[in-house]
């Protein structure tokens, strides 16, 4: 019998599962306490104004403890399977993961920088303190500077979790028994992305310790749990997750990709995932302005967000958004609206902006205003707007620069009309006021290639206004 496909008698498997549940509960409880303790300790050092060297030493100490904890848990699970399976498992070398390795993982190495192509071993000093890369980069260049205690607390707690996952990942990859493993979310709810990956159950193999299944977003609380046979883990229901995922995939349609499936997951099961959104058809709207909440505005302007699958650094995306608020919108629009032979810079900016917008999913409904060309609605004059039928949709090829100011931003030209757009939960948009080159416009940038549904006409300050719904 293969050591990674043990099939135990029902009663023996029941007793094994009880022991495995106890082990996992002890592990997650201890890891959670360690995360909190590490975060509080390091944030306290930051508050006291201690040196970065002392802060880093404290982080290293807690990272070592987290790696030992994860390695011990892996070994205990392995021993239980050997005991109940009645087999002897070969020796293996327990892994040890450092804080440096976790920082490399969290920061994405030097990808999307001038030094991309460097590997982790290239930036680790040897016994003489020298690094072996032409750029002279070291792992210290990736470490953040801890100047804010709240930022330190959050970063360190994420780092401890990352150390635990990397330790489990390394153990699975190096174990000669080649155990299967599952991505197990903690708590009653998880996000749509993690649910998708958790739906596979204990189906991942050691060679799956790379790729999307090993991507983790900021604040992700998923664990890697190994298994050497058929068993169940209390609180982890991959069959339910799989049914939810398949329903969402069907709703996304044959042309939908995995991102479309996740969008449907958030809508269909909005009460069962922690990033769920209210389904769009339930929203009724009179055309009145719906102000965006302060918390939603804060979320849409959090440029530190990184989502699984992101290709570009946060700095690249911020730079592209800043350029957009300057003059680059002209060349970008020229490209999006049919221009030929765009420069590499323009294509790069568009890709960065696309990713920045898709990183920010709306959770609440709100309205934004914008001055739009009459040609958007396939009319030449104001009077023709009254002939439009409610429910008619209009494609918008480019990005939509909107404002949370009622009436939008005045734009020169007689062929424009004020519009108010209802942005439903589950849409995407990024608030660029904190980084704009033109403060006071309060711009929310909406994605390109979206449709707008005509909801009717009204008046604002004595001027006509078109009511639209973002689809």
TrEMBL record:
The lineage of its organism: Bacteria, Bacillati, Actinomycetota, Actinomycetes, Bifidobacteriales. Transmembrane segments: none annotated. This is ADP-ribosyltransferase exoenzyme. The keyword Transferase applies. GO terms for cellular component: extracellular region. The keyword Transferase applies. Keywords: Transferase. It comes from the Bacteria. Residues 313-454 form the ADP ribosyltransferase domain. GO terms for molecular function: transferase activity. Gene3D superfamilies: Toxin ADP-ribosyltransferase, Chain A, domain 1 (3.90.176.10). It holds the Pfam family VG15. InterPro entries: ADP-ribosyltransferase, VG15.
